[in-house]
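ok so i was messing around last nite and threw this chain in just to see what happens. nothing serious, just curious
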Amino acid sequence: ESVVEEPVAAPAVEEPKQEESKQEEPAQSAEELAEIKADDKPAEEPKPAAQEAAEPVSDTKADDKPASEEPKPSSNGTAAPSAAQSDIQAASETSDAKQSRTSTSESVERKKHRGIMGFFKQVKESKVLVELFVMSRCPDAIKVERVFDGVVPQVYSIMDLQLNFIGQLDPHSTYGVKCKHGNDECRGNIDQLCALAHNKDLAMFWQFLSCLNKNPRMIGRGEEALKCASLAGLDSAFYTCVSSGEGRQLLEQSVENSQFIGVNTSATVFINGKPRCVEDAGWRECPGGHNPSDFIRDICAAYKGSRPSICSEYPPSRK
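result:
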């Protein structure tokens, strides 16, 4: 309580007295007022004095500017670049940065257009890219893959294969994706993607896939994948991929790729980024045919390098 009252008492008594004394000042004589005013002037003079003292400092700084613009020697004895040279260099760096961003953007788009094979391994640009948009337990997908049983062993040396799985991204699901035929299909997709990512050559992977397709009901069941991996000679990298987060990441990127390209029908075949054929309860949109020989012919025709001898048996069809 005392803390509250003390600040109220002091100003209430003292401040009015000071005001009264100020009001009495005009009663002083003119001479006294002149003396007071004369005494007050020196107190105001330090302000311009401070300003005058500051002016030489600013003049000095202004005088120093031209000197600071002269090239200063660097630690290695060479002259530092002038302001104009720095501006030119900065403009050049900005231009280089823009070109780098543009190049990176174009590279990303090309990689997406070609599929995500670059995520699995380095794609040789001279090879023909065959993309299968599928679901591992889909009957139509298995039908197309069985056709390619007669294609891949013949021309695997001049082609790259990409599996683009169809599903819905869902971060809350077990595998990060919802698959039409359940979690067994999602696991089957992961088995195939890991085998494709970790194989010595495409023929080895296709042996693994053909093994799985012999018993479609077991796709996505761990024991069947292990048996087929052992048969195909896949090493420990495959098992690590399946049991770690790598497999889930591969599946999510595969589904993203299908969505980016805009394909939602299993099974769809692309060759070098162009639609080639669709199997959906029957073949359709297959102008070049859908037999193994038809796909071999198209792959050989699309290859720009030195063709293997098998291609001579499949000359380009006349349109």
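not much to say yet. The mean pLDDT is 76.
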